[in-house]
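For this section, I looked closely at the sequence of one protein beside the tokens encoding its backbone, which the following lines show:
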Amino acid sequence: MSAVEEMLAELGLTLPEVVPPLAAYQPAVQSGVYVYTAGQLPMVDGKLPVTGKVGAEVTAEEAKDLARVCALNALAAVKSVAGDLDRIARVVKVVGFVASASDFTGQPGVINGASELFAEVLGEKGVHARSAVGVAVLPLDAPVEVEVQVELRGA
């Protein structure tokens, strides 16, 4: 087990299986020393635990927890191409999308769920640049979606 996976275990988390693509794309691709993930939905055992808009059907706190799930799914996608999460030199960029009710403006707080997970698991290597964007709707009516760019060492 990698040191990253040991840290996940200490946090009571398990790296999930890679979420299969919903359309014509790969969950992650490597280009040079970088791994780019596709947008990761908060899928758990092949389904979304919650659907709807944040600020309407879904609370900001529920959505923040779902963003953590997205981050875990992103780590699984990174591992699928990198082979070992200990190869992560740093998380470079996180982009989070929040399906938002028309008056919801707390997107940064929601995406903190993903950002905080990366920092907890990877320490300083998990601190990154980020965008948090409100959108009208996401695939499958998911409340949140996260994509990640990771730099690897030993590529």
